[in-house]
């Protein structure tokens, strides 16, 4: 089993693959020589090769702004309607959390609150902070920023929780005239917010976090010639 | 032109590693047995040396596939209220939303709780089974790439949490009985998580590219 972790020593003079004219295939992890101004494909697995993801910052901003706009209807509109013996009881996301609290299930209320309120909010603010940190000075170390980004990537999908709960409830509580749960327009908005924030995170290239310090790219001669095939 | 390789068979001859997340160039990295190599700058795991994961993964993937049909079609829960009862299965949730014309939500739930997990399991079984049987076809390469690209869109574990939250919400209102689908679903969740966590992707890439280079060098 792979148990021992080896960390090579950080070289005195840091060279990135881009500076050395190399490109890494993000799929099969092979390293190739980069051909500038050409559409390059990995010869091993066929994936498109880019030294950095194309238009990474613009795409991330676009997805982020779209998700922020949709976050407003997702929280203000009705996400679910509970019709109990003919009486409608529409609720928003926060309304659902408060209802769970009143029912006394604090743990579940906390989980729902984290997944559907905190996580999307934290994700949007976090991605924005990282994007700002590429342009302005932010009081965070490089390690902190990459850790934050990895965390954002990891938690993103858990916001789908509310959407799944609605689909389960809508299918289960479907007895006409007695009790009926139907989805509301905020469900569409919220589902889209989750997808958009996930797309924002996946279109961001983490390698840019280290690039901002080294604006002046020079092609550095490699000491060792890469092996020819 | 092939320069380097992060992998078992070729790492011996390799001289350069590039970090996936920060693009740091690491030269002259020694080979080690049974270890992980971590990027000194950002902490990303550059590569793992772990063997014989493919057959384990195949076993879990097959188990998950067997559980898939009952998990999706059999009722997960039954609700009883005022003498009436209503059943819910994984697929009926999406169908009801479709009837109510919430197309985006219906498609999103269907994709992330049924289709993507099924598709990923099929791809994983195809790749691991082919490697085990020593069979090679070009489609294996893009199959494994697709398997990785869809990783974050399969959300079986989130759905499980969804079931728990839904049960708690309904407990005060009605009586709920677990159905056969729930047990099948739990088994599906467990075996598909094991199938993906046990697998060392570097080992799969080594095996695939080894077979590929026999036909055409890359």
Q: How do the SSEs of chain B run, as a string of H and E? A: EEEEEHEEHHHHEHH
Oligomeric state of the chains in view: heterodimer
Count of alpha and pi helical runs of chain A: 7
How many domains of chain A, as an integer? 2
Unreliable spans of chain A: 216-229
- Helical content of chain B (DSSP H or I, runs of 4+): 55-70%
Overall pLDDT metric of chain B: 84
Provide the gyration radius of chain A in Å. 24 Å
Major β-sheet strand ordering of chain B: 7-6-8
Strand order of the largest sheet of chain A: 7-6-9-8
Task: Tell me what the structure shows.
The complex is a heterodimer of chains A (229) and B (218). Chain A is an alpha+beta fold and 229 residues long. Chain A has seven helices and nine strands. Chain A has two domains: 55 residues, no CATH class; 151 residues, Butyryl-CoA Dehydrogenase, subunit A, domain 3 (Up-down Bundle). In chain A, 47% of the residues lie in helices and 14% in strands. In chain A, helix 3 crosses helix 4. Chain A is elongated and about 70 Å long. The C terminus of chain A is likely disordered. Chain B has two domains: 49 residues, no CATH class; 162 residues, no CATH class. Helix content of chain B is 55%, strand content 15%. Chains A and B meet through strand 1, strand 3, helix 3, helix 4 and helix 5 of A and strand 1, strand 2, strand 3, strand 4 and strand 5 of B.
Task: Describe the structure using short key phrases.
heterodimer; A: 229 residues; alpha+beta; Butyryl-CoA Dehydrogenase, subunit A, domain 3; 2 domains; four-stranded antiparallel sheet; 9 strands; 47% helix; B: 218 residues; three-stranded antiparallel sheet; 7 helices; 8 strands; 55% helix; elongated
């Amino acid at each position: 089993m792979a148990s021992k972790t080896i960390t090579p020593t950080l070289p005195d003079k840091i060279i990135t693959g881009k500076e050395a004219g190399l490109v890494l295939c993000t799929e099969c992890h092979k390293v190739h020589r980069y051909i500038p101004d050409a559409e390059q494909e990995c010869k091993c697995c066929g994936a498109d090769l880019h030294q950095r993801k194309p238009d990474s910052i613009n795409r991330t901003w676009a997805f982020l702004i779209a998700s922020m706009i949709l976050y407003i209807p997702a929280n203000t509109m009705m996400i679910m309607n509970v019709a109990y013996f003919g009486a409608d009881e529409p609720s928003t996301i926060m309304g659902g959390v408060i209802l769970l609290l009143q029912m006394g299930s604090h743990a579940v209320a906390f989980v729902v609150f984290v997944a559907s309120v905190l996580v999307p909010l934290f994700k949007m603010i976090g991605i924005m902070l990282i994007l700002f940190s590429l342009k302005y000075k932010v009081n965070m170390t490089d390690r902190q920023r990459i850790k934050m980004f990895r965390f954002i990537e990891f938690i993103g999908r858990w916001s789908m929780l509310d959407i799944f709960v609605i689909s389960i409830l809508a299918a289960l509580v479907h007895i006409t005239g007695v009790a009926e749960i139907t989805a509301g327009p905020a469900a569409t908005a919220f589902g889209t917010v989750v997808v958009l924030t996930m797309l924002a995170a996946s279109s961001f290239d983490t390698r840019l976090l280290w690039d901002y310090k080294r604006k002046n790219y020079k092609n550095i001669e490699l000491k060792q010639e890469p092996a020819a095939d | 032109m092939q320069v380097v390789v992060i992998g078992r068979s070729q790492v011996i001859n390799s001289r350069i590693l590039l970090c996936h997340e920060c693009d740091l160039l690491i030269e002259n990295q020694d080979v080690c047995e049974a270890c992980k190599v971590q990027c000194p700058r950002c902490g990303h795991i550059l590569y793992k040396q772990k063997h014989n994961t493919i057959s384990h993964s195949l076993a879990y993937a097959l188990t998950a596939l067997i559980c898939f049909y009952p998990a999706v079609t059999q009722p997960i829960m039954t609700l009883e209220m005022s003498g009436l009862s209503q059943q819910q299965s994984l697929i009926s949730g999406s169908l009801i939303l479709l009837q109510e014309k919430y197309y985006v939500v219906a498609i999103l739930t269907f994709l992330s709780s049924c289709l993507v997990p099924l598709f990923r399991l099929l791809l994983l079984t195809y790749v691991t089974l082919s490697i085990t049987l020593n069979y090679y076809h070009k489609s294996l390469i893009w199959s494994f790439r697709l398997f990785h690209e869809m990783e974050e869109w399969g959300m079986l574990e989130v759905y499980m949490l969804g079931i728990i939250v839904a049960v708690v919400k309904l407990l005060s209102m009605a009586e709920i009985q677990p159905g056969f689908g729930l047990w099948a679903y739990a088994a599906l969740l467990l075996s598909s998580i094991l199938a993906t966590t046990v697998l060392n992707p570097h080992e799969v890439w080594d095996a695939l590219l080894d077979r590929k280079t026999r036909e055409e060098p890359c």
